[in-house]
Amino acid sequence: MPFREFVPKAHIERPAPHQPTGRNTARALINTGIGAAAFLVTCIGLRLVLPFPEIDGGVSQKFRFFAAHKDEFDTLFIGSSRIYFQISPAIFDRATRESGLPTHSFNFGIGGMYLPETGYLLEQILKLKPLKLRWVFIEYDELQTKWSPENQTSRRALYWADWKRVSLLLRKLTDAGTDAVWANPAKVRDIILHQKDEKSTRTLLTFYATQFEKNYTNVARATDILNYFLDRDTKERRVSYLGAAGDGYVTRPNRMSPSQAVGYERGLATAMAQSGTRPLSSYTLEAYRQCGQEVREIGAIPIFLITPSTTQIGIKSENTGLSGVMMAFNNPRTYPNLYRTDVRRDGQHLTRSGAEEFTRIVAANFVELRRTGEIK
Amino acid sequence: MSFVEFRFLWFFLLVFVVYWTIRGNSARKVWLLVCSYAFYAAWNWKFTFLVLGSTTVDYIVGLMLGRSENPAWRRFWIATSVCVNLGVLAFFKYFNFFVSSASEFLAWIGLPASVNTLNIILPVGISFYTFHSMSYTIDVYRGKQRPISNFVDLSLFVSFFPPLVAGPIVRAVYFLPQLGSPRKFANVDVRGAIILFLAGFIKKACIADGVAPFADRYFAHPANFTATSAWIGVLFYAIQIYCDFSGYTDMAIAAARLLGYQLPNNFQFPYFARSVSDFWRRWHISLSSWLRDYLYIPLGGNRGSRAFVYRNVMITMLLGGLWHGAAWTFVIWGALHGTALLIHREWMRLTEGLKWAAHAMRWLAWPITIYAVCVAWIFFRAQDLSGAGTILKQFALFHGGGDEHFHRWLLLVIVALVFIHWLNSRRWFGEPWRRWPAPVFAAAYGCTFAVVLLFVPPHYTPFIYFQF
């Protein structure tokens, strides 16, 4: 083919139609507005009709189960694997029943679930308006801003990214405070200029802003429609997340190897040697304040739970300003049995027997607080 | 920053609004130049100096070619441009390949040599903007293009952000005249451009990224799969690479059109080609025509003996394969296409005037072509030659080794996509939109975009051609 055929006359401008420019601009703006409005209305409409998203790690299974049995439970445990594998509702309920103050509890722990995801999921649970729910145990830990790269691409990192959660993360990343006005120009400047160890902050800001956009525009939600109609949830899959008793608790029996035990002992000693307590950030407290308020709005009582793990040692549990009850098990001197090597899987988790022991202690504390009237 | 990311939409909105608000053509070009460099800097700001360096060299070479009448000096200047451009490309893209290949060859002949490869980051889009830039100096040398005295014009031509990182490859003679006169918004086919952008977005974000996990899973461990799944894996990759690349091209052309500039078409329904020769008139047209005009024809083209012509075809296709990536799999991909082109030529020569052959080819031409193209894709995608061999055995001989398999209904997905593609070739999707009144079109577009996002995977998969 001759060369000139590949040089079409694209560059030759056609004469512009003679129309008043102002009118054209106005028309273009109106049409753009119509397009944008149609886009937003469709996004909102779809968001309202779409089912709860299909999320890995047992989130969907537990949510669906709880939604189907929402009026059966009066006690809920929510948090990470430190709740999931360490609180047995069956043992808790037995202990409270034997004490004459019976409960019916459900474990909504999910592996790797921290604030802000916990806050979002709790909000969705409370929106179901569970009639009997009276006590909500919420794991107490720092607001996480970092996601591992492999999880960043999953839907798990997306479904909770609403404005309430994302704005808090953006505030924490930019150190903008929790007041109405966002202000920390120096920090913003450092982030923009990549100064003072702020290299990853800009990436995280972009990541969360994108997650927010994706969440509100229903990115990747088509699979939920398919899953909703096909109902591909198998019994085996449900049991793997809900546990044999169907109460949300799954056991993890394996113990540490001798070398892991040595590492654990060393880590524990280091953590115990550090003096003083460390308060959680104001952003975390704000998130827990919101959680507590939402729990109280349905007539339940929030109970903040610090689990026995080496990274939790030293977290300040007094004078947090939260309107809820605090239960702290992060002191190895007060609860030495929970930190013994033979009941631990690792620094974060207990073995099955350790989890049972921990559940009994939590139940005993709960009963005691109810008897003294601190928990009504 | 990629066309399918939200931040690109914000970026483009800013570029678009400011661009059409600015009155003067020079100021608009400066604004586009700044935006183009910012777009490239979003990947790695350090490599903007590489683009700038390449542009500066070709700017000087262009001026010197314009001033010099002496053939020897002109040859010197064009050689300088070609050497610098290809030298940069060779260093960043091929240095490690050549070094490791030489080392393996020496070891093979019994002369083991200890060589070190370098930890080189491949600048995104280097193959594309190098070819943009080289087309300018070569055309000036050939007298087809006037030397440009305005550095901004040449810089904008080389770095114009829509085609910068994955094409289409734009030639100076095509693009530079467009910079001469101010673009008029009234001449912009906004509706056509945004329909094209949406089509590209669907191709890339919904289809290519949707089928990519299946293709990736298969090509990662082909030996584990059955023969039927091998077919699904290879066909999905064929769909993925087409939708990925042509999706990018559609979005690039649409973005450029919204700014008043035209880019050359790059795809013309290549999977409906009825011969490999036809395939190359429909696939990556800007590259195939570039290679034809700047490599195949200078080598001698169709002039000379049959053996000489076949040599030219093979050299062009081998280098075309190597252009895609520094690996032997790409060279073999090029060689396979070259061989297929030669077989097609020979077949046409031998069956010229034979009615039965023409009749048979009416039915067989398309399946043979698509099969040959898919066999070649195996080498293009395979991680190494042994992996390609395994896949070829499964795909060509229907000999599956493993028991892992994909659902059979994925074959229906392939059939459905082919059918949609066919409808698209009949203009079923694009044309009705054009007849609607503007407000109806705007509302329908907004709704459609919102629905399309439902089908976009949560993760962003980089464009395949970014690595080239």
Structural commentary:
- The complex is a heterodimer of chains A (376) and B (468).
- Chain A is of the alpha/beta class.
- Helix content of chain A is 47%, strand content 7%.
- Chain A has 14 helices and five strands.
- Chain A has helices at 21-49, 59-68, 81-84, 89-98, 117-127, 149-152, 163-174, 185-192, 199-216, 222-230, 235-242, 258-273, 282-297, 352-372, and strands spanning 75-79, 105-109, 135-139, 301-306, 325-328.
- Chain A has a five-stranded parallel sheet with strand order 2-1-3-4-5, sandwiched between helices.
- Chain B has two domains: 6-182, no CATH class; 190-454, no CATH class.
- Chain B is 73% helix and 0% strand.
- In chain B, helix 2 (25-44) packs across helix 6 (151-159) and helix 15 runs antiparallel to helix 16 (385-397).
- Chains A and B meet through helix 1 and helix 9 of A and helix 8, helix 12 and helix 19 of B.
